[in-house]
Amino acid sequence: MNNNTDRTGLDAASEIAARIDAPTLLPGLYLVATPIGAARDITLRALDVLNAAEVLAAEDTRVLRHLMEIHAIPLRGRRIIAYHDHNADRARPGLLARLAEGASVAFCSDAGTPMVADPGFKLARDAAAMGLRLHPVPGASAALAALTVAGLPSDRFLFAGFPPNADGARDTWLRQWGAIDATLILYESPRRVKDTLAKLCEIEPNRSIVICRELTKKFEELIRGTAAELAEQIPDEGLRGEVVLVLDRPAPVAVDDDAIRAELRQALQDATVKDASREVATRLGLPRRAVYQLALDMKPGDERT
């Protein structure tokens, strides 16, 4: 008797939940952060927006539909519009048109915060250019989650996204961004982690790194060590799951003026004094003003400044 009563009560509650009228949202594009693993890592406001938005768009419609089912958010006749790298140019005009009509549009990437390494940038940029309202709905972010558990300095950090696939381009990319005096956060394919670590060993083998794998998921793992130590630990086939790398700030490098001048001579072959100074300062991790002054002393009165 009690079991039947409980079941009837649950069914009734579900029916009531499905019939609840969603509150009206202000017009505009809602950039909704979604969980990166644990489904309960979603904010109450995000659930309200998904319940109330007139138009739903997602990088992967199946992922958003499943998330809404988990949290008992009804579609109420709404369909979820796919918006991803392969169809963005075709799908964007329709979404912008609905926004221009005054609709509320919610966009979700596969996981985490939209605009962080996902296809939402052009949609947000074009909506802003049209004078339309953008609403942040903050929440989970793999980059910030990794930073919080890495145990590395967090007062100044840089999210650099994914390194290039090509070997030479990746080397240049890592040297450029890795020279900046900040904790560096980057995403990487689990299959290429070992290759990236090998490159980092060539640049600075003793740099402290934290590999954050499967954050908030069942097999969450943090692997700490230097670039050289981690390159030895990671199997040749790479890792499994989603990976975030967090790199400590680069070690200070003692560079004398002769070495800086040599770098500047090379850079000045293809750039102005100002641009060459910025490039060399970034690469060597030196104050930009000091390098610029040294460049001026080398080429006094250079008209390209």
TrEMBL record:
Tetrapyrrole methylase domain span: 29-231
Limits of the RsmI HTH domain: 256-299
One Pfam family it belongs to: TP_methylase
Keyword Transmembrane among UniProt keywords: no
GO cellular component labels: cytoplasm
Documented EC number(s): 2.1.1.198
Record keywords, A-Z: Cytoplasm, Methyltransferase, rRNA processing, S-adenosyl-L-methionine, Transferase
Molecular-function GO terms, alphabetical: rRNA (cytosine-2'-O-)-methyltransferase activity
Keyword Cytoplasm assigned: yes
Subcellular location: Cytoplasm
Catalytic function, reaction form: cytidine(1402) in 16S rRNA + S-adenosyl-L-methionine = 2'-O-methylcytidine(1402) in 16S rRNA + S-adenosyl-L-homocysteine + H(+)
Function: Catalyzes the 2'-O-methylation of the ribose of cytidine 1402 (C1402) in 16S rRNA.
Similarity section: Belongs to the methyltransferase superfamily. RsmI family.
PANTHER family: RIBOSOMAL RNA SMALL SUBUNIT METHYLTRANSFERASE I
NCBIfam families: 16S rRNA (cytidine(1402)-2'-O)-methyltransferase
UniProt name for this protein: Ribosomal RNA small subunit methyltransferase I
Organism: Paracoccus tegillarcae
Lineage: Bacteria, Pseudomonadati, Pseudomonadota, Alphaproteobacteria, Rhodobacterales
